[in-house]
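Recap quiz, item 2
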Amino acid sequence: MSTQKYPIKLEVNGEWHTLQVAAQHSLLQVLRDQLNLTGTKECCDEGECGACTVLLNGRSVTSCLILAVEVDGSSITTIEGLGQGDQLDPLQESFLEHGAVQCGFCIPGIIMSGKYLLKKNPKPTYEEVQEGLAGNLCRCAGYGQIIEAVLSTAEKAGEAQS
Amino acid sequence: MSTFQYYRPQRFEELWQLMVEYNNAFSLLAGGTDLLVRLRKGRTNSRALIDIKGLQELHGGIQEINGGLRVGALALMGDLVDDARMQQHFPALVEAMKWVGSTQIRNRATLTGNICNASPAADTAPALLVYGARVNILGSLGERTLSLEDFFLAPGRSALNPHEIVQSIDLSYPETPNGSSFLRLTRRRGFDLATVSVACLLIPEAGRIRFGLGAVAPTPLLVIDGSGVLTQTESAQVAKESALAKLAERATPISDVRASKEYRQAMLFALMSKAQHIASERLNQSRS
Amino acid sequence: MSASTTIPAESLVGKSLTRVGGRDRVTGAQRYIADIKLDGALHVKLVTLPVGHARIISIDTSLALQVTGVSCVITAADLKQPVPRFGPSFNDRPVLAVDEVKYYGEPVAAVAAEDEDSAEEAARLVQVEYEELPGVYSVERALASDAPLVQAPSLRGNNPLAHTNIINEWKLDWGNVDTAKADLVLENTYTFPMISHFAIEPFAFMASAKDGGITVWSPIQHPFVMQRIIAHVTDLPLSAVRIIAPDPGGSFGGKAYPKFEPLLALMALKTGRPVRLVLNLEESFQASRRASNQVWVRSGFDHQGMLVFQDIRADFMLGAYVDIGDRVVSKAAYTAAGPYRNPNARILARSLFSHTTPSTAFRGFGVPQVSWAIESQINQAAEKLGLDGLEIRLRNVAHKGELVIPGGTPADGHWEQTLQKAADAIDWGTPLPSGRGRGLSMGMKPSATVLSSNVLARLHMDGSLSLLMGTSDMGQGARTVFVQLAASELEVPPEKVQITMGDTSIVPFDSSTSASRSTVFMGNAVRLACQDVMRKLKEIATEQYGVAQGEIQIFGGKLHFAGRSLPYTTVLKDYFGPGRGEIIGLGTTRARFEPEHPLGGNPAFWELVAVGCEAEVDTTTGEITIHKLATVTDVGKAINPQQVETQDAGAAIMGLGHTLMEHLMLDDHGRLRNAGALDYRIPTIKDMPGSLHSGLVENQDGPGPFGAKGAGESGILSISGAVGAAVSQATGVIIRDLPLTPERVWLALQDKANINPSAIHSKSLDHDSGVHQLADGLK
């Protein structure tokens, strides 16, 4: 199948990439197939499950509903971009500590949604966490532990600041 | 997904040319949250995607205009819900937008896109209708403005001509005092498509109540009662119910995978009375 | 089986060790099948028809073959003849549709191309001429005398039911239902819908043929079942079939048995190239589901609420092929009468063919479908008899050691404790807030029967330990539990224990990761393997140091004898010298096959749960709000309490899904109307109950390590009965069909209001047409 390719530049996890992408390929496909960043997961392909959530110029989006070609010049953060070296991001640590991870397939997307939520609202209530993560499905349904993990991260960050 | 050509015009001239060149076999891309699903399911056969995000003129965000707000075509719902002016003057619309998809979707989806799809279940349409939104349309032959009511023609079909785009949506501040509300029935609490949605704007001094109704007719519906029955607290309950029932009769719901026609009809009435109730409570709060 | 049930003070048992493998799951480093690339792999796309049942007239692949990048298009005609058929129970499912399509989603052809886009485009261009045939899309249709036969009688051998759509009939009968005298008899019919597993990881498979053998990658729960089936369709010996099974991204039974792996194996052999197939979510919906059913039940009680008899007929709608569905029905039948003393019972469960997606294993394995009916009956009886849901169950629940099924495994726990704890957790007996209702229910599932499990434990020179085993870790946290058990047994630090799973060429045989059996059976095998290592350590110490074996003690990670204390490393170094070596221990567990037993043997333990729910109903819209939900499970001993509680909570929420919102819908052509995330609704984080309690009963009385029983499924067994009872109490209406969608609840309220408008908020005995007799004294 001959497909015209479009040149784009993407800053992914702090590093610039020059890529040739097909018009119909989603940001999700390009991250996974061309950049081999497979931490971002594919499930519903209609923006309903949130497994493909990444940060696009600092905002959480479902990367299955975005064409790679339309985000030329943008900055992307994926799950692989969290933490520093061997040091996990506090939210990742908290997910482990609270047993919020079961099969793990939805977790990268949920953590990215959680990062965005905490950035916008560093001290969310229980309900605000529910609202903020409502776009991410977890069929193992560790929702209670996930909420605890996010709340506890916020609490610890608050303590560190005060 | 089938392949297509991608364009990102920087000037309207280029846009008009592309529209002519692809003569209906194109789709306009703004947020893409709905379009990509349709493309993937093979529901559109566009040979070209024209990304309008390269057009600086459409990036106006929210501007104050005489007696109201102008929402640019590319304004994101995620930004609109956080805007203090929107929250102050158009609370029912903000509530409706909060129901659109998830945080991730609202971070990408535009208010304009939500109405351009002309879905009868579009979450924002009922609220925009009660606030009397006007749609500013730009085409190669010039500009025109339509009321939102006239904009919706049929499921998936708007009044846009093939060579036109929506430039912005104008919202006039409603007369004060007023009370408004938005309600929506879904199959679960988490985000979902609406089974029925209702927006309500109550303006007591005009004796007028406006309802926007979603997912109960081929297009979002605006129904108005100017008799005062529904704005006066002293009206008899029976009179109120009969006025509401009369308004609800305009709806022609269908049965689908989400609900039966009968349930929609009953819920429409229930939601309308609840929406009216909430709107009058809010009105009272704003007065006190 | 286990050497001791005493937990040493320093043991890791009962501690919530952080999930082993958790780190990769929070960093995105965990590789699920779709994340693994095979060099030079062809991408496969399946070609399906938009109907549930059709005769294939012709398939034209010429246009598809013209697409650049397409390598081949395979139809049944291109495979060896007769086309290989497979299945865990019967070899009834063809690798590709032969002559007929029997369910919506059954592939008629498969395209292989250099990239996904080309495969997709070519799949669209395969032209299939077909004639739609009348389909069997409901229980009623399956049993109708003029219904088309889903499966050709010729495939069913001498089965006397071969000329019907009945796959099998499971019958249990004890006491005498016909002569038993009851004061209250309730007769009703309940339905349970088709449910999608909806694991967030869609199905993905790969295969590669090399050096006369075949390797298949699959997120399969039971790699050794897959190995057997791939060997069968390829005619290769087991030793030439390697199954690589990375951790599934959720399975819940959906990935327990082969789906398209046999097709991929044959395509890899045919093309000589690795092949890869990743289904999208909609296709995944078409690949697996839970069986729907219809249960007619007549329950008799005496005036004190004691169960006198239960007469149960359950019809399960399986799909076009049996998969493991008939085994599901057998287990559902076996425990249909519940965890109660049943003096008289008659159970008939039938598995039926239909032109739908083959139903397969699903967490709870048939129990939720039957529990909904019989627990609802008990709740209705309680109301009629002026008892409450707790009292009636306390009177009937089997006490430890009592039989629930003649000749079966007796009640293996203090189930009344479990029940009481669930009631307490939702404040049973305290004043009820207005507009709310409360309900209780119980569920009981038979655990694994005939099986075997093996563990190889390798103690290395540096004192670290490798364990090799065939369990799949699909989110339940099996690795963590086994690390805890091994580290406790050999007293080595848990971080020095590594576990290898998911590769049949490396790990020893294991029957399956199913029926909540791994902690018990593989857990015991882990301990036995470690004990074998210790035995061998003593042997080499005897040889090396000349000390009698009886004089050696092992504790604290050291060998103690004759006043000396030597760490394992010293013993190994002294014994093996510079040539180095390792100690290999083997642990094996097995449950005997009893051919005459309906389940192949008595279950080793019962998975037992009690559920409590407090709910409120918006009588205008029919929406249900779950204020409190509690599950209490008898787990014997929680090796890792956090993991057990998390699984129970997840199972409970999954149970809320099928209770409140989930159901697959078919149109007149047998097509799924709501495949995918948009219109098949599962609970989101906002659908959590107001409070969710996951309680455990731990009396250390199970057959597993330290008295553990299995866990992880119990939470889903009986959510519906408790919610249904709470809704009934809140509204006065009884609904017998799931899910309890707002519309269904609203309709029931309308019906009730039409009969007696004032009755919406009051309970009434009069409207239950199911009451056949009511002793005079009761009124």
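Chain C touches chain A through 65 residues (CB under 8 Å).
DSSP finds 18 helices and 29 strands in chain C.
End of item.
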